[in-house]
Write a structure and sequence with these properties.
Elements lengths: L10 H6 L9 E5 L3 E3 L2 E3 L6 E5 L6 E4 L3 H4 L7 E3 L5 E3 L2 E4 L16 E3 L4 E4 L2 E3 L5 E3 L3 E5 L2 E4 L1 E6 L2 E5 L2 E5 L5 E6 L9 E5 L2 E5 L3 E5 L6 E5 L2 E2 L8 E2 L11 E5 L15 E3 L2 H4 L23
Parallel strand pairs: 1-4, 2-5, 3-6, 4-7, 5-8, 6-9, 7-10, 8-11, 9-12, 10-13, 11-14, 12-15, 13-16, 14-17, 15-18, 16-19, 17-20, 18-21, 19-22, 20-23, 21-24, 22-25, 25-26
Length: 296
């Protein structure tokens, strides 16, 4: 608690209290307010939950940049452990918006590298590289993700259900997703189902070929006119035209019109989309739990 009435003075202190090799779920309730901390949850500390009040969400914030820490280590919250859960938490990087001149201005809010992680009703604030969905299986539900360029990136295999992707575009070209699959045999993808694509400007690509074999699916999602009619970019690399896997299925809104769409985008059939729109894509039935309701 910010007023000092909690069991720990900082979130970092709370995390330190969890023994290495932990085998039981530990739920930390975080009171409202701003927590200026850079937090890393090591791989040795699984089964941690950070829980805030949905009516008064705590904000974990730090101003780390790639220039100081390197991109993936600039994150305000780094989670390398498995079975992590966050519910009703704001995670933000308060570094300034990149101006295109400063080298290393990227600033990550969250890096999730552990397996079987879940985020319920969280808000992620940043500009470039807001969420590093780094590797392994993750589930994001009812979250809001803000950003400008590549603000969801990495090699995770993740299902995003009922999230808002809010692009701060203004008049600049922006990109939501930079999925980092590097070969046809790599088993990772980002799947967005029943999401809302919102924001400012009208120069936003849903995704680009940052790496050679990105796999991204948008299904049943609502897209505002923030999305460029082409929708997708080969990142000025024509060789990627044959290796990208960009799929769309029954999206709606002015930004979802298949007319004028880049040939990179594949309008999926009912049969083709089936593997992507169930929890089975992340083996969710084996590990996914509902949001916690701790007794406080």
């Amino acid at each position: 608690m910010k007023d000092g009435s909690g069991e720990f003075k900082t979130i970092t202190d709370a995390i330190k209290s969890v023994p290495d090799g932990n085998t039981k779920r530990v739920i930390f309730y975080i009171g409202a307010g701003n927590y200026n901390e850079k937090i890393k949850i090591e791989k040795t500390k699984p089964f941690i939950t950070l829980y805030g009040s949905p009516q008064n969400m705590p904000n974990i914030t730090f101003a780390g940049t790639a220039k100081t820490y390197g991109t993936v280590d600039s994150a305000t919250l780094i989670v390398e452990s498995d079975y992590f859960v966050a519910a009703n938490i704001i995670i933000s990087n308060s570094a300034p918006r990149p101006d295109g001149k400063m080298v290393g201005a990227q600033a990550v809010a969250l890096r999730i590298s552990g397996d079987k992680a879940t985020f319920y009703n969280c808000k992620f604030y940043g500009f470039q590289d807001t969420v590093c969905d780094d590797r392994n299986k993750h589930f994001f539900k009812d979250c809001v993700i803000h950003g400008t360029m590549d603000y969801i990136f990495g090699s995770g295999k993740s299902l995003y259900l009922k999230n808002e992707l809010r692009t701060l575009g203004e008049d600049k070209v922006t990109v939501i997703v930079a999925q980092a699959r590097k070969s046809e045999t790599e088993d990772n993808a980002y799947i967005f189902v029943h999401c809302d694509v919102t924001g400012t400007g009208n120069e936003t690509f849903l995704g680009r070929a940052w790496m050679t074999h990105p796999k991204v699916v948008f299904a049943y999602s609502t897209m505002s006119n923030v999305v460029k009619k082409e929708g997708w970019s080969n990142n000025n690399n024509p060789a990627a035209d044959k290796t990208v896997r960009f799929g769309e299925y029954k999206n709606t809104g002015p930004g979802a019109d298949p007319k004028g769409r880049s040939p990179l985008a594949h309008q999926l059939t009912d049969e083709e989309v089936k593997p992507y729109i169930t929890l089975g894509v992340i083996e969710g039935s084996k590990w996914l739990l509902p949001p916690p309701t701790p007794k406080i």
